[in-house]
Write the structure tokens for this entry.
Amino acid sequence: MLDDFLTRAALAGTGLSLATGPLGCFVVWRRMAYFGDATAHAAILGVALAFAAGLPIYAGTLTVALAMAATVAALASRGHAMDTVLGVLAHSALAFGLVAVSFLPGVRTDLQGFLFGDILAVSRLDLAWVWGGAAAVLALVAWNWQRLLTSTVNEELAQAEGGDPRRERLVLTLALAVTVAVSIKIVGALLIAALLIIPAAAARSGTRTPEAMAATATAASVLSVLAGLGLSLHLDTPAGPSIVAAAACLFALSLPLTRLRRD
């Protein structure tokens, strides 16, 4: 079954959706969309470092993504404006990554594959990385679910209950870093933020509890992957952007539900 490239692509997209669904909900609730972009841009620098050191691509991207998460958390805790910090780090990391790749001798790689993804080229090893990373993220979010929810709703309440909002922010940033690292070959550095945000935004319209929103976001993400792959197959369009376009269509279809709830 895994010899079929389309089956591998569907399995990879489904595995990624298990992480982006619930994690994307926290990105929407906490308004962390820009952090997803910053971490994804930094992943290109990880690609360059992996080529330079002869390491697997996932190892390089994961290392840089985790470093980005730690740096952002450290600077934010010192009072720096979060949007400014993210803007500086995101564009700087992307620029340094693109420059570094151009100087690597003997390396010929299509950067478009890392910027926009190439889900149709997913291998069995890639599947192992994706499902392993997604399982780790899902377990981390599930284990910290109630604490994450409480600190998202009210940090003072979380502190009163003995929680540490800074720890929960770190948990989310680490989970985002792992998700970005394992997704770079599927939807690419420039599209992962869209896959995190759009299904969660679509799920927000028709759900009433956090758990229902997380489940609906996961289902919407899986549906986007399958619909995008079908669109790519029949219209010969790029797979990664097609997946995001399918997610955008789901979001558009969810808008009437928002108006109904307001009425």
Observations:
- Residues 127 and 220 are 21 Å apart (CA to CA).
- The chain is about 80% helix and 0% strand.
